[in-house]
Amino acid sequence: MAHHDDPAWEPAYARRSECMKASEIRELLKILEKPGIISFAGGIPDPKLFPGPAAAKAYVDALATPKSTGVALQYSVSEGYGPLTEWVARRMTAHGVSATPENIVITSGSQQALDFLGKLLLTPGDTALATLPTYLGALQAFSAYEPRYDTINPERGNRTPQSYREAASASAPGAKVKFCYLVPDFANPTGDTLSLDARRRALALSHELDIPIIEDSAYSALRFDGSDEPSIQALDVEQAGSLDASRVIYLGTFSKTIAPGLRIGWICASRAIVQRLVLIKQASDLNVSVINQMVIHQLASNHIDSMIAAARLHYRKKRDAMLRALSAHMPRNITWTRPEGGFFTWLKLPERVDGAKLLERAVDEAKVAFVPGKAFHHDGSGSNRIRLSYSLPTIEEIDAGISQLATLL
Amino acid sequence: MAHHDDPAWEPAYARRSECMKASEIRELLKILEKPGIISFAGGIPDPKLFPGPAAAKAYVDALATPKSTGVALQYSVSEGYGPLTEWVARRMTAHGVSATPENIVITSGSQQALDFLGKLLLTPGDTALATLPTYLGALQAFSAYEPRYDTINPERGNRTPQSYREAASASAPGAKVKFCYLVPDFANPTGDTLSLDARRRALALSHELDIPIIEDSAYSALRFDGSDEPSIQALDVEQAGSLDASRVIYLGTFSKTIAPGLRIGWICASRAIVQRLVLIKQASDLNVSVINQMVIHQLASNHIDSMIAAARLHYRKKRDAMLRALSAHMPRNITWTRPEGGFFTWLKLPERVDGAKLLERAVDEAKVAFVPGKAFHHDGSGSNRIRLSYSLPTIEEIDAGISQLATLL
Fold first, then answer.
1. Would you identify the CATH topology of the domain A52-303?
2. Domain boundaries, given as residue ranges, for chain B
3. Per-residue pLDDT tens digits for A112-125
4. Nearest to A321 by CA among A109, A55, A40, A88
5. Nearest-by-Cβ selection for A50 from B3, B73, B123
6. What is this structure's pTM?
7. Is A261 within 8 Å of B121 when comparing Cβ atoms?
8. ipTM score of complex
9. A289 closest CB neighbour out of B241, B273, B292
């Protein structure tokens, strides 16, 4: 018997709930379902690249015998499925960071890694360093642990270590700068890549402040032009002598190279840090779905290099279409970034234009969606910026959508 | 180049890290892999019951077309896969709680639900009420949010509301009693079930303290004898008039009825609470693996009642074998619970016997594993208790293992 006029009851929430807001991106996923909207919103991989038949084969293989079924559908250790942590360690080693499975913990995508690192490192009032703008999902994950944010700018130059320290301790008694978060390759939201000098500058600051760098490499496999820079972790391991002596915590994911729906990523770090993260994984959700780890292991072992090659070609064409369409349709007072990889370009609108208000008009009048820039700014600025993702729409939709959007500007 | 004599570097961790310890159960999962050990340790379902072929079919179906693959392997909304939240809402309604999909959020097993509720409700120093003993995974999840624990005893009688309130506010400035955690059916670790009177008493206390009850129903489908009591949520909804007016937050899981390896559970609560939990899901790991939600939806729709019936018969035989073996082999100064369902019996050893030391001897000398009781006690007591799970070993192993264990006592 439901009486819909009964008064709703709500508990007293934790203090942190004041810091937890809905993500504009996640709300926008719902707009995607509206027919007729061309979406430049979510950082969503193109499902045309998903390995449907190979994944189906891998699921069937995982369930082929009672013995393998007994592993695939059972609980498991929190560290991750052994063959997968071994594969990831070999992959990290091939990319310049000599790692063993004890340096790896498997997570439910990189988003869970961000949550775990907030949980591991942040006491309320502590300072997290990040660029302005930065990935809004990272801000969401960290904000649950009630940090203060401060801005680094490794490309143009950071403030002095002393100035970061003083600002941190002034904000709360005993509060410290706890980590520096970076997306060095084809960053979300700007598409920008940090130069080698900027990587070294970020690393120097982390040494001076004696803090870890969280290196989020979500898009790094998807380079279209130019040449790879070494990861910040590889630079630090070279300098420190070993991964166990390094202060860089590297986040990898299969979401952009294989598919996001299996929810599998990893953290590569010193064994001491990984041991702590395994405890957090235990307490948070025990372990990542074993069958999904088995399937990702099989897909990665057999197909990842050809999948990455195909993804680079596919998204490169879309990036080209986006830059072509912006040049063709946008008025002169609007500028944008030219990403060498990844999913995003970042537009600077005239000062008077508010990205959130533009979105409302864009959805209604131009049938186009994107993400307003403000959510990527931990200081509340950025209202005249917008993020455009070219990963999901077709080349025809990119041209049509940008043309329609330009009519509003 | 790894130089293994480089000094390891560690960051300054969050204050909460002092509260996060390794679970004895999770460590024991590693013992399971040692050949020749009979394990009464983990609360592990018997893989003989896993629906291997039906799951394989469901995975193949989810990946049968490009369109379904594009859903199965993509990101999704944080609430959960629509057809699954609808199925769960109908199931809850059939069990006495009139629910809609807006009352449901899908989680990565019940463990993640426990983590989310700690995150939602606990400011450091707040009080969580729990029975003594209680599920150690819940203590692990909550402890990351630095609570104080206090003890309720709904079966024998609670303290006065005023006494709980005073103890909470004495522990830290502004600290409050925030929730009451209960496993009413075939509890982990005791196997005990709360009587109807005890359920009403717990509910009365939660009303007097104006706090939610977290009702963890992990084992409730697995009743062997006797008859079901109504869930505490059903009792509260009847009294409050609707789920939105109720203060009970119900945790369900498919881990014990279908399989744990897909990592799928749910929370059923008022829409206001569910909306908050969806934000937490977003920030924590975006969404549960869509393909696993599709597979669980297909398995639950087609097979759950026959699977539950089979599981009841299967585990009932094992429970009977366990009680028979305990009666046959254990000395008179040892007592145990007689569960009407679930996976566990709970032994009281003589005062002088330490369960943790007994475990060391049991693994070495008797080739038997179990979980020492102390980890289930938030006050550090319980060293002469042990938890025996009969879910995984065969009937022959149960008899042999208990016989071997008894030689040490």
1. Aspartate Aminotransferase; domain 2 (3.40.640)
2. 15-51+305-406, 74-303
3. 999 999 999 999 99
4. A40
5. B73
6. 0.96
7. no
8. 0.96
9. B292
